[in-house]
Amino acid sequence: MNKDFFKSSNPSRFHSLRDTRPEPTTWQVLFKEITNSTHTAATRHYRAHLATLSDIEATGDAQQLEQWKLTKSNMKNAQPAFIPSVLLEGGRTYAHVKGFTGFIMVDIDGIPPERFAAILTLVKEDIHSFLVYITISGCGIRVISHVEGGVTKANYRMVWEWVNDHYARLCEVEIDGQCKNATRMSVLCHDPEALLRPEASSFHTSGMKPREKPKRGTAVTVTAERAYKIIRAQLEEEGIAYAPGSYNDYVSRCFYHTNRYGVPQADAEVWALRTFPDYPREQLLPIVKSCYSLTMEFNTVSLPRSVRKKEKENDSSHKKATVEEMEEFINGYMKFRMNMLTHQIETQLIADAYTDRPEASACHWQRLTDHIENSLWCAMQHHGMAVNLNELHTLLGSDFVKEYHPLKEYLDGLPPWDGETDYIGRLATMVHVKESPHSPLQQDKSRERNDLSETPVRFADILKRWMVSMIAAALDETVVKQVILTLIGRQGSYKTSFMQHILPPVLSEYYTTKSNSSRMTKDDLFTMTENLVINLEEIDTMPPSELNQLKAMVTQRYVDERRAYGRNKVHLPHVASFVATGNNLQFLTDDTGNRRWLPFEVEDIDSPWEADIPYEGIYSQTYALVTRNFAASLFRNIKYFTLRKLYLCRKWMQKRLQKTTTTGITLPNFDFLA
């Protein structure tokens, strides 16, 4: 191995299996950590726990067994680990991979106890073994080897299979097929006899070829190791043992059966020398040759079906995947997050080492669907993981998927407001309303009369208060916005377009419309829990019955309903703020519920499609105003609309009621305006 490359391809270390922040380290430091006393206590404790777990499995106590399995998982997750195969920066998924180191990890598991020491010696003596240590369970062997010639995303799987097949042939045991993930972590534990060989020989990609898949209907070659499991049981039943006086008979019968089971002669000879090291070589090999001279007997008997089934269950490639293995695979395949506005899981495909997916880096976030979840399950199966679809669904419904609030993330990423520029006021100037305060004469007359009933209501003031309360209601579920910003005017005056442009483009998907459908449905209720702005279009065409339902919906704090195809009711907060548009000034007929409306008659609106709206400034200003109110009152008793402003709005609105009779209306409690 090139020593310069050895120094430049150091692994990344993590404080635990769940840690996502890589720290650079060196192979020498890792080797020292494995061989010194750093992890002695943790390794001893974990292995003792495994022994107790085996005893509990024998008792059949399911509840206690589940508790001990959880403890075992937590113990292992707490151990530090390293990733040998890739160079990482900023995280541990494929999105953070900056290159491949050329180091390949091999996990030799499922070793018969009587062969463990012999296999460990074989692995350590192999010239390709760079790092070798016993795993934390005490039952497996972890091997790190190096490959020259350039390891890339395109050829990583082929390289991994080539190196792992080498050790499978060397040890004649099955190799854990779940280690092919390039971002797979290797747990650090204590092994004072571990091996580090800087001068180890490297494999080279020039001689590697993709693993050939057996054609359908082609018999898979039986290994001597597999056949011997059956042969040994058969000989025990016949009372024949490998003991003084019966060595020759035992060995002869073994190779008679390996020939019938179809084990190649060359493989049988290699296996014979390893399995019977005390039998003289010059006597052993002629026995093998003699048994295999019966060519008509070769491959005439199949392994018993029950044995094949049991082997399949015990095979590492069909072994049920643990939660940790599922999490590790998913972290290298897809990103997941729980959108706290829509209450839906979202996913994004990321690049991986198994398939060439150049489009992955450009993939956008999308809602998790059955199709995506099923595709993930299929990918796990293709990569040797035995995963139950229900268990995968349970994992994705747990705290493994981190929470994400799109509005909060957007606001936190904005530059701070300068404290002076009125960006919301600039947005308001796009809307030209009747009885506008922009007329100095009208303002002066109002001051002279000091008549509240004639003082104009400034749209800019109302819009600012509405914007602040919209953000407050979306960020705190104890705040419900119960007033509806309403624009009334002729068709084609950009009323709906203006409402569509209240939210910045990055949040535009959280704007929706509600047109007159003559009734409010359960879907409308859920709409309140997953959108920021709901526009009630054609408000003047809504019948009184729907308006009454709307009043109840606007004030509703939570939605307690069962979703379509859902198993249980959900308890979701009302986060949406309402706006409305219409053409008819006389859209209200009941003055007992009119306090919910903040109507303005529009003369014209500047085209939002052509305007350069300063969203960053608008929302940094809004967030700053909201934050101040957070600190002052923790969202309680926040009066974004003062008594004066509400009184003026109501006086202005009364002129547009269809009813002309004067009615004494009691001023409401203003907590709803928060």
UniProtKB/TrEMBL annotation:
Domain named BT4734-like N-terminal: residues: 76-195
Disordered: annotated segments: 1-20
**Annotated transmembrane regions:** none
Enumerate the InterPro entries for this protein. Answer: BT4734-like_N, VapE-like_dom
Xref: Pfam families:
BT4734-like_N, VapE-like_dom
Q: Which residues form the Virulence-associated protein E-like domain?
A: 461-626
Q: Which domain of life is it from?
A: Bacteria
Protein name according to UniProt: VapE family protein
Organism in which the protein naturally occurs: Phocaeicola vulgatus
Its lineage reads:
Bacteria, Pseudomonadati, Bacteroidota, Bacteroidia, Bacteroidales
